[in-house]
Amino acid sequence: MDQANAMSKKLSASAASFVPNANAAVFVPGQGLVQPAAPAAAQPAAPAPVINVAAQETPVDVVEEASKEVAAVTIDVSAKSPPKEEKPAEAPAAKKDDAESQPAAEAKQDASTAEQPAQPPAEDSAASASQPSASSAANSSAADQADDDDEMNDGREHLNIVFIGHVDAGKSTISGNLLYLSGQVDARTIEKYEREAKDKNRESWFLAYIMDTNEEERAKGKTVECGRAQIETPTKRYTILDAPGHKSYVPNMIGGASQADVAVLVISARKGEFETGFDRGGQTREHTMLAKTLGVRQLVIAVNKMDEETVQWSKDRFDNIVGKLTPFLKQSGFNVKKDVFFVPVSGLSGANLAEKSTTEASKWYDGEPLLGVLDKLSPIPRTPDGPVRLPVLDKTKDIGTVIMGKLESGTIREGDKLTLLPNGIEVDVVSVQREEEQVKKVVAGDNVKVKVNGVNEDEIRTGYVLSSIDKPAKVAKVFDAQLVILDLLDHKAIFTAGYKSILHLHTSVEECTIRKLRFSIDKKTGKRSERPPKFVKSGAVVVVSIELEEPVALETFKDGPQLGRFTLRDEGKTIGVGKVLRIPVQS
Question: Could you give the CA distance from residue 73 to residue 406 in angstroms, rounded to a whole number?
Answer without folding.
Answer: 30
